[in-house]
Amino acid sequence: MNAEKTLPSYLEQSDAVRERFERLKARPKILEVKGLDKVFETPKGQTVALKDIHFETHRREFLCVVGPSGCGKSTLIRILAGLDAQTGGDVLLEGKPVKGPGRDRGMVFQGYTLFPWLSVKRNVMFGLTVNGMGFQEAERQALQWLALIGLEKFAEAYPHQLSGGMKQRVAIARALANQPRILLMDEPFGALDAQTRAKMQAHLLEIWRKIDITIVFITHDLDEAIYLADRVLVLKAHPGEVQELIEVPVPHPRKMEQFISDEFLATKARLEELIYAYEEKEEGADEDEYDYPDMPRLVEVGDSVD
Amino acid sequence: MSRTNWFSVQTELSPKAKTVLGILSFVLPILVWSIVSYVPAVWHPLVQITDPGSVSYLQVDMRMPRGPFEDVVKEAEAEGQAPPQGFPANPVYLPAPHEVASALYTAFVTPPPSRDMPWLHESLWHSIQVIFWGFFLSSAIGVPLGVLCGAYAPISRLTEPFVEFFRYLPAPAFGALAVAILGIYDGPKIAIIFIGTFFQQVLIIANTTRKLDGALTEAALTLGAGNLQLLTRVVVPGVLPDLYRDLRILLGWAWTYLIVAELIGTTSGITWFITQQARYQHFENVYAAIIIIGIIGLGTDLVLGMLAKRFFPWDRNGK
């Protein structure tokens, strides 16, 4: 790769970044994933979606999971949430095995999953009241969470009156209101336009700084992963396995300007190498790959758009 | 305003065009009916006698086919006697719009032929009660059962195959049985409407419930909702607007069972009125009664539709 000649290695960390990672790793482990397997039974036989996944996250860590399509990112996060069951291995949350969904793990989905029949405020109150909190206390807390995401003015609005970005902000507030130990996010900004997505990323970092929350964030957007994450877990597909766990050398606090810094570009080059090199190897297996056929010219010679 | 292309597929109409077309959908059939009734050249296969002349077997207001009438006229003229007079008429079973319109009014103010018989509004009220109880009893069991079937696969498998079988059995076929069990008055009528509605209802409600977005229940699970809370706080409110729409459609079906139901045991309600009037060939009254049923049905549905907007302000597919 030519780019690597001029860029520093992604493994090079400034002193500040190294110290930060040392502090991070000294914190207690929130989530431990040990030898996780997931095998789907299909009519054509068994499909191994995840194979022997190991990783752990520490308190207040921001972990991004990236990988080519079909690497089982979504399956992984659904297992962490307890929505799917693994076929082997363990998921431990603060040392206790995860069994089924629970309020200790909040989740934000890619699609909009706000309850359309509830106002924004009632949506945020939902987790609190199903867990037995009284209405008034739940309402008070919900309003605080809405203030945190800057949507207190929309407390009485219905979800269909909100934009996509606002809906996802409410979904984040709804998940956080339960005060989970960990927030699982499955490509939460995937359906948003580029501008909104950038705002949401900055907003999420802001929230993460302010409260005691560990985040596991799935994305296929490499810039997003580097911008947000402390560490990036890179998976490969067929079967889904851990390829590398990258410590992002970009210093905190993160800013948009860092997108062109050397550390950022070096990390991105490494991620691209891991993911695209792999995809090229798998060419044809992936439905997104498309070989352009020789296209006949359908306009007159000389009638050129270049 | 740009010219609209009326026949572009899946394109919304302007509110004005909607209103105009909606009115036309009623005006056009009435227009056809008026042409058939008032333009003598159109149809009018009979002659209504105004003066029997010398023909002894003819009476005033009698209707006879045009061909034989012309023969009779020729015969009388040939014998030098007074020919019968008449004007082109439609069969008695097709009254003109104005006759039906006036019947719509007079049917309500005309006292019943004998004292122990009900007035029209009493007959109607009786019918509405039969519909109400049949539909209410069906919904009271059918809606919860349908929601449970839609939410829980074991209940669905335990219920739906049999319900699927039963819904093919024509409700009126249970008429005699219903009379034997429930007597001859309102019991068997309510039972027929119940049978006609219930089995469809369970299946439709179950299907509607199954269509609830699974992501919503998953979101609720990750928020810590328990199984019962999932049902009461996600599934039921989530499908409520669609359930309401289903019930509006099912209520329409319940009306279609009314006439058959009311013929069972002692004939009652609007059906009694219709059969009575038909027996005496007061077809304008028969049409009036049928139109009243239509007006009540459409009116109820419109009111329920407007209430839906009140009940479910968040509902996006609703009208």
Short description:
Chain A is an alpha/beta fold and 306 residues long. Chain A has helices at residues 3-6, 15-26, 73-81, 120-130, 135-148, 164-177, 194-210, 222-228, 262-281; strands at 29-42, 45-58, 62-66, 88-93, 96-97, 105-108, 182-186, 214-218, 231-236, 241-247.
Oligomer: heterodimer
| CATH fold description of the largest domain in chain A | Rossmann fold
Let me know the largest β-sheet of chain B: 3 strands, antiparallel
> For this structure, what is the CATH homologous superfamily of the largest domain in chain B?
MetI-like
Low-confidence stretches of chain B: none
What count of domains describes the coordinates of chain B?
Answer: 2
The tally of strands of chain A reads 10
Distance between the termini of chain A: 30 Å
Strand order of the largest sheet of chain B: 2-1-3
Mean pLDDT of chain A: 89
**What would you call the shape of chain B?**
elongated
Description:
Chain A contains nine helices and ten strands. With 306 residues, chain A is an alpha/beta fold. The radius of gyration of chain A is 21 Å and the shape is globular. Chain B folds into two domains: 46-89, no CATH class; 109-311, MetI-like (MetI-like fold, Orthogonal Bundle), CATH 1.10.3720. Chain B has helices at 15-38, 66-78, 97-109, 120-151, 153-166, 175-182, 186-210, 214-222, 227-256, 258-263, 269-279, 283-311; strands at residues 46-51, 63-65, 85-89. In chain B, helix 4 (120-151) packs across helix 5, helix 4 (120-151) runs antiparallel to helix 9 (227-256) and helix 9 runs antiparallel to helix 12 (283-311). Chain B has twelve helices and three strands; from the N terminus they run αββαβαααααααααα. The A-B interface holds A 81-83, 100-103, 105-107, 109, 111, 113, 115-118, 126-127, 130-131, 158-160, 171, 174-175, 178, 184 and B 213, 215-216, 218-226, 229, 233-234, 237-238, 240, 312-316.
